[in-house]
Fold this sequence. Notes:
- The complex is a heterodimer.
- In chain A, a hairpin with a 5-residue loop joins β2 and β3.
- Chain A has helices spanning 16-23, 78-89, and strands at residues 4-6, 29-32, 38-41, 64-66.
- Chain A is globular.
- Chain A has a two-stranded antiparallel ribbon with strand order 1-4. In chain A, strands 2-3 form a two-stranded antiparallel ribbon.
- Chain A is α+β, with helices and mostly antiparallel strands.
- By secondary structure, chain B is mainly α.
- Chain B contains twelve helices and no strands.
Amino acid sequence: MPTLKIDHEFCTECRMCYVACRELNLNAVYVAAEPLHRIEIDPARCLFPGCTACLPYCPAPGSMVEAETGRSMVPPPPDVHRWSLKGRMR
Amino acid sequence: MTELPGKALARELIEQSREAAQHTPMDPIIEAAREKRLDDGAAFRLICRLWAMERLFYYIYGGWGQGLELNDFPPGVKYLFARQIMDESTHEMLYMDTMLRKGWLDKQRDAFDHPCGRFAINCSLSSYAYTLRYFASYRHSVRVAALNLGPKIVEMAWMEPLADALDDPALKAVFSSQFVENRSHINMGRRIVEEQVSTPFDTELCRRVCASARKDYAKFLGELANLVLQRETRADAGQVRGLFQRVIE
């Protein structure tokens, strides 16, 4: 299963992903104490690719990537939406 | 180089706040943490109440932001205020993340329903929040003096020893990771007061609002310590005494 991570080269720390994730009560996006208050994704809680709720909210292209391949998920590629739908059908 | 107009005032307010911060109502909590008496329940009450306080900063800063007019301050002052809003929001997230990751809460919504996280009008937290919110009608430099050179200095004074006393790495990190930002807020306050407060009227106003914010913050800390250590509050004691008095009569 692919996992999602934040690329801090591009992330603006606007925290829209945090808000989306918290609203859905998944709480995979969190504020890390170390390195100081950077937004991170907890792979153990993140449901990607079953859930892609945070991706459309992210305003910084390239700031969320597939951890295994490094492929940018912002803006979300069309196949990512298909995975998401499949996840929901299951 | 000319002397900054508010330099003496900033120094005076910082010294007063440091003096007030030598002993705070948080001392028994720090003592309990040192002696390993701060169990999970107490830690939850502490974090949850501090989260409720941080939530109220959205309300306070919302009011303050409306009071910022175009061109009344240099852009640097507004940038620093934006940074402070962001940092306060970060601290709110840190507290909430801790409660969720520790399993104390299932979801964010539960904190709003919990007595420690719920907002109530008749408590010291709300009077502290209202005091700060009412400063919205003053100049930004005056209200920054009230908060950043008042309660922020007191907060720094109890947070450092508390982080030091805590054993749990996650709880320790929640507090110790705030030091950088808290220190920066104090420095922001000092700089803004030094550069922007120049008239005798504003100087006197700064003294008054700073003392008022410090007093209300101390009351909030007292209430927090009572809640965390589950001590009887003065209000409870008063009610009980009143009841006994009526029975005797």
